[in-house]
Design a protein that fits this description.
alpha+beta, 4-stranded mixed beta sheet, 12 helices
């Protein structure tokens, strides 16, 4: 029986490029080689698409020296990738895509639109779910309609920062210090700062504006940082919960990936029925954004057991220390089984594409 060809995309132009390069080898290592031919495509920070030979080349960084270009065709008949070398093009049919891309131009619906045009099944959420989940402001709007508790917030645009004093007044009218300042569309805590006073707020707003034109200023929630993994399509499952014990005052990029003092605890003891409330809210939010395949949903749990929604990640990290695969592994689902489940979920899109056929 012919092996199916799976294209794994990684890298990308977002500020989370580095995280993607850490996640991709961990996915590739756990794809069943007896079932799939793996076509690895790396996207440089400048936006060049390159064919990559191996997961080891990703780990070493050698992949960026590839001389074979790769173009994912939007042609719904061809359904594949064009490999470009020495002025010649080779068409490679693709059965399914696993986009291990985090952040803008990977997790926000843009690349998912290419998959939809080509009608190639792919792992993860669709265009709508990816776009609204990537944008924290619109995620909050959806969470509000679901009646889910979340932090109070103020929206600031980059253009407003031309009048910083007015922005400070706008924030202070609704929120008390300390506050958290976040780019609306960014992940892995890129551009996120905590501000304890006016001067720190101005500095934090400038930093966030480097990553996005929309900035979210939120009240500080005092609580434990809890995460839950979601898996499925027609039937959606929630994992157990995990707790983040950050080495810093909050779980920033450095704490997540480079500080060995940061730790994660699986199935922590939470007050009352908070763990079940987290699992229930995770599924509700996933369905509310029209989620498909996978997501990691993040919360705070206060001392009295109150569950406060933080954010949803539709393509969560898949590094060796990432919470998403760890939560499922703790439920008896190995990384290899998890990756296969995600791929099989992607193939469910095939039926939807066939329904669009004319004639």
């Amino acid at each position: 029986m012919r092996k199916k060809t799976i294209a794994v995309l990684f890298g990308g132009q977002s500020s989370e490029h580095e995280v993607s390069c850490m996640s991709a080898p961990n996915v590739i290592d756990h794809i069943k080689k007896d079932i799939y031919e793996i076509l690895i495509i790396g996207i440089t920070e400048e936006g060049r698409w390159l064919k990559v030979d191996s997961a080891e080349d990703i780990r070493s960084g050698a992949w960026k020296e590839s001389r074979v270009g790769a173009i994912l065709s939007p042609d719904a008949v061809q359904k594949g990738v064009l490999l470009l070398k020495d002025g010649k093009a080779e068409a490679v049919p693709v059965d399914v895509v696993f986009p291990v891309l985090h952040g803008l131009w990977g997790e926000d619906g843009t690349v998912q639109g290419i998959f939809e045009l080509a009608r190639i099944p792919y792992v993860g959420c669709g265009v709508l779910a990816s776009a609204v989940s990537m944008d924290k402001v619109y995620t909050k709007v959806i969470a509000d309609t679901l009646g889910i508790c979340q932090a109070s917030y103020v929206l600031v645009t980059r253009s407003e920062l031309e009048a910083p004093e007015a922005v400070v007044r706008k924030v202070e009218e609704k929120l008390s210090y300390p506050v958290f300042v976040k780019p609306s569309c960014a992940g892995s805590s890129r551009g996120v700062s905590q501000a304890a006073d006016r001067e720190e707020l101005k500095k934090a707003l400038k930093e966030a504006a480097r990553h996005d034109t929309k900035i979210l200023v939120e009240e500080r929630i005092v609580g434990r940082e809890i995460e839950c993994a979601v898996l499925g399509a027609d039937t959606v499952e929630a994992s157990g919960v995990g707790e983040i014990l950050s080495a810093a005052s909050f779980y920033d990029f450095e704490s997540k990936y480079y500080n060995a003092e940061s730790k994660t605890v699986l199935d922590p003891e939470l007050p009352g029925d908070a763990a079940e409330a987290v699992r229930d809210a995770a599924v509700r939010i996933f369905k509310g954004v029209d989620g498909f395949g996978l997501a990691r949903v993040d919360f705070f749990v206060k001392a009295d057991g109150t569950v406060v929604f933080n954010e949803i990640n539709t393509l969560p990290g898949f590094t060796a220390i990432s919470m998403y695969p760890s939560l499922w592994e703790n439920r008896g689902l190995s990384k290899e089984e998890l990756v296969e489940r995600l791929i099989q979920t992607a193939f469910k899109r095939k039926d939807a594409y066939s329904a669009y056929q004319v004639g």
